[in-house]
Structures are given as structure tokens and as C-alpha cells.
Amino acid sequence: MPSDEPSPLEYARRFYYDAMVFDRRAIRYLIDLLGADRLLVGSDFPAMPREEPGARTLREMGLPEADWAEISHRNAFRWLGRPVPEADAAPARARVDAPA
């Protein structure tokens, strides 16, 4: 019986997800399943040790620049209901990649 209801995947794409899982395979799966536009760089600090430098696993994956920009900062603006700055990709990448 056909349904006009959204699929479970469509429901899942309504949420944002923490990409700090420290496992490249899991991150790749989340990107492939949900899209880079649904992931955020998160932290469990101070509950658990964080990566040094922050988001190391994500940065070492060699993601396309557009995916990195979505995950590293653009999605946070969207999640907060704020406009995404137009010229933010290059400066943000430089800030995140700066040595700790």
C-alpha cells in the first residue's frame, strides 16, 4: 500500500548529526547516507578527550572543499537559524587548519 508519508531516511535528513565519531568509515557512511549538509563538527568536551588538533579525523579525510565547509562551519549557521556568510569558505578553512 503506497504511502504519502516521508520515508525514514527523509525523516532522518531533517536532523543534524555530530561528525566527531573519530572513525573515517563512519563519517564517510554518514556523508553518503545523509549528506555533508547534515553533519556538524561537535565535541563531548569536557566529558571525553578530544582530538588534537580539533576535527583531525575530518581534516585528514581529504573531503572536497565544499563538504569540509559545510561540516566545519556552514551547517552550524543553518542549525542556529542564522544566514550563512557569503565569503566564508577560505578564511574558515585557514582558521581551522592553523596549528594549535
Automatic annotation (TrEMBL):
InterPro entries: Amidohydro-rel (IPR006680), Metal_Hydrolase (IPR032466). This is Amidohydrolase family protein. Pfam families: Amidohydro_2. SUPFAM superfamilies: Metallo-dependent hydrolases. Residues 14-81 form the Amidohydrolase-related domain. Coiled coil: none annotated.
